[in-house]
Specification:
The protein is mostly helical. It has 7 helices and no strands. The longest helix is centred in the last third of the chain and has 21 residues. The chain is globular and about 40 Å long. The protein starts with 12 loop residues before the first helix and ends with a helix. The N terminus is likely disordered.
Amino acid sequence: MTHRVFGDLSRTPDVIRAQRHYWRLRQRYGPTHIDACYVATGKLWSGLAHRHYRLTHRPELLHDLVRVKAPTVEPDKTALWLEAAGYPEHVTLISLFASGHWRRSILSDDLLVVTRAIAEFHRHFPLQAPLRGTSRTWLSTTIEATARQIEALLNP
């Protein structure tokens, strides 16, 4: 995301703020740390988008900025504008996982500590509807696996 140009984002200032936040994270933790978090959170981020997590109105705003060749052309589901639409939330996810304290809480053997860390996750990423069945299991195991992956990348 950092090397791509999206054009006029003035109607979505939260995307611009997210980019600034991303660069502050890189300054605070270092590029290696944040790059590891960016890569490791990718699977979690795409899974959240499919499991009752709804973005703001940004996709519609950004799609309006994209030139469509004809009214019958379907929007490209992998288009850069779609990536930009979820960028603020992805940066928030990176920020959460960049915190060593939060990752250690997720990986703790103390169930109360893990429960508090999951509650913090839900404060940052509220869901439209409660997760049910396999989605609930998916979320907890993917959060833990992501934290372990980042720990392994940062502390080989």
